[in-house]
Amino acid sequence: MNYVVVILGMAVITFAIRSTVFLLGERIVFPPLVRTALGFVPVTVLTAIIVPMAVTPHGGAPELTWRNAQLVGALAACVVSAITRRPLLTIAVGLGVFFLWQGLVLR
Questions:
Q1: Which of 48, 41, 43, 103 is nearest to 72 (CA)?
Q2: Quick one: pLDDT at residue 5?
Q3: Domain span at 75
Q4: What is the rounded distance in angstroms from the CA atom of residue 4 to the CA atom of residue 26?
Q5: Number of domains in the chain
Q6: Half-sphere CA count of 72, side-chain side, radius 13 A
Q7: Residue 68 neighbours by CB under 8 Å, 6+ apart
Q8: Cα–Cα dist 65/71, whole Å
Q9: pLDDT value at position 3?
């Protein structure tokens, strides 16, 4: 029963936050500093998701070796992104390096 109450509480809070911003729309004016900070949220969230998966692909201790295909693919994607600034090419190269590394190097 406690789980149901917790889940319903989280749903109500989430709905309240999202609907408030949606209903107030343009009437809310964020200061420039807040708008600048909100621009970094997607990058921060993606980094928080991807880095642990690349560094510790099997959980536990970090695997900072050449045998970690996820890390090699992520590093290749970082290089391509820094050079080209093209998201689709970055994803394609990262996945390509990951699968080639896993299939050819780690065989």
A1: 103
A2: 95
A3: 32-105
A4: 35
A5: 2
A6: 15
A7: 54, 55, 57
A8: 8
A9: 93
